[in-house]
Amino acid sequence: MKYMWEGRFKELIDNDVIKYTKSIDIDKKLAFYDIEGSIVHAKMLFKVGLITKKEKEEILNGLKKIKKEIIENKFKFLSSDEDIHTAIERRLTELIGKTGEKLHTARSRNDQIVLDEKLYLRDEIIDLLKKITELQIVFLDKSQTYFGEIISAYTHLKQSQVILISHYFNAFIEKLERDKERFLEVYKRINILPLGVGACAGTSLPIDRKYMAKLLNFNEVSRNSLDTVSDRDFLIETAFCCILTLIHLSVFSQDIIIWNMDEINFINLPDKFCTGSSLMPHKKNPDVFELIRGKTSTSIGLFTGLLTLMKGLSLSYNRDMQEDKKPIFEIIEILKTTIEILKKIIPGITFNIETIRKNISSYTLSTDIAEYLVKKGVSFRNAHKIVGNIVNYCIEKKKSFFSLTLEEFKTFSPFFKDDVFQILSFEKSVSLKLSEGGTSPENVKKEIDGWKKKLKKFLDRILVLEKEVSILKK
Fold first, then answer.
1. Which residue in the list 79, 277, 400, 470 is annotated as catalytic?
2. What mean pLDDT comes out for the span 212-234?
3. Where are the chain's structural domains?
4. CA distance linking residue 349 with residue 256, whole number of Å
5. 110-358+448-468 CATH choice from 3.90.1310.10, 1.20.210.10, 1.20.190.50, 1.20.200.10
């Protein structure tokens, strides 16, 4: 028998149908997870009396041999292997004979693939949490290196208010922290055992799902067989988490690209992380950051495909779902490689502090002046209008705030006094931003110190998760 389902058919299946419907080239990535699930399934079958101890040992030894063959690249996939499940069961039967045919008792490929995907995602999320934390540490190192240095923040790509460069890097640490929180939330929903629900209705055989959940370190078992085999929410949620993380990294990349422009020249990129032009000898291009933007777009397209795949399906399992693996594999790989390249390139980025300082407009202090008037009793709307008039005056006279005299200030409002000059510096501006979340050195230093402890603690938490999930890594 070449195919496990061929008993129903009077004709041989057309070879082109086999080629079109097989997924082994993609889902062979799940081989170790399929074996891990099969090992636990065999142990459960023995526990409930559906196979003998001898049969259990034969199955377990055969599965271990298959795992060894895959690790040593000696496993041979055949043209008749539809998917990773059939490939492993076929090889098991070759190794141990008819006993291998008992392994599929009380399970279906429908619940088997959900298990494989969940085991795979559990490992990948733990790895991503670790990688994201390591990237946060890289951002934190940069934050500490440039602590005290000032740059203009931008809204609408126009200079807005001055901030500490550290505040900028801390912003991405925050974004990545939310990304980690989302992954941890998805992890909870992934960590529910699907195995044992069969094709869609459960089984009349006396299986023990809680026993399998315990062996595989799942927190609980799924409650509805129809939902279990049709559910790909956990894949979609994981993909979304990856996409949002990539979007955050794409935003960072866009800033780097802009700051690296010849006309702006705020930063220097290391030569070994840039590329050149095939025609123009002088070019040094920020291609890595451009590709991060591009690969983020690719991932969004794959995510859209995953959503579209699931939107019109009726309960419970449909073969369309075979197409769910390629997009999630690719999205995760894009995120992982993006994080890894950023971990290497960010430490080598340097800021041209003198150039940055020369390019900060005095008008970035306009809100400070408005708030100065508010403290004198002027309503904010009136203060806003007064400072807007001062800006117009400065533009017409080609002046900056720094070159204005007290007399000039007083022509716009009698509330201006000598102490207005005390706030007319970029250092003073950031130091006054003491509200929670503000860019004052005092606040930023607290944040840096807090992140040092928090990130170290999280890495320790990852070690615990890694120990809990002991599946062989790819």
1. 277
2. 95
3. 6-105, 110-358+448-468, 361-431
4. 9
5. 1.20.200.10
